[in-house]
Amino acid sequence: ALEAAKVGITAAEESYRVRREQFRAGAAVATDVVYAEADLRRARLELVNAAIDIRIARARLNRALERS
């Protein structure tokens, strides 16, 4: 999940970059840029959530191993 989130960020960053350039060239409207930025923020949030999920899983595993 962590690697997939990283790939998602890379794709979202590129999409955002392209939309900004298109907007500057007059080939896109401001809402296109806003949506691309929102997608980038969502991708970054997914990375944070994946990292949190990993930490929770590790803590649960450690707790289970201590009980054994």
Summarize the structure in words.
With 68 residues, the chain is mainly alpha-helical. It has helices spanning 2-24, 30-67. α1 (2-24) runs antiparallel to α2. The relative contact order is 0.16.
Provide the β-strand percentage band.
under 5%
Poorly predicted runs of 5 or more residues: none
Helix proportion range: over 70%
> What is the CA-atom radius of gyration, in angstroms?
18 Å
Quickly list its features:
68 residues, mainly alpha, rod-shaped
Layout of helices and strands:
Layout: H1 2-24, H2 30-67
Helix pairs in contact: 1-2
Question: Could you give a short description of this structure?
Answer:
This protein has 68 residues and is mainly alpha-helical.
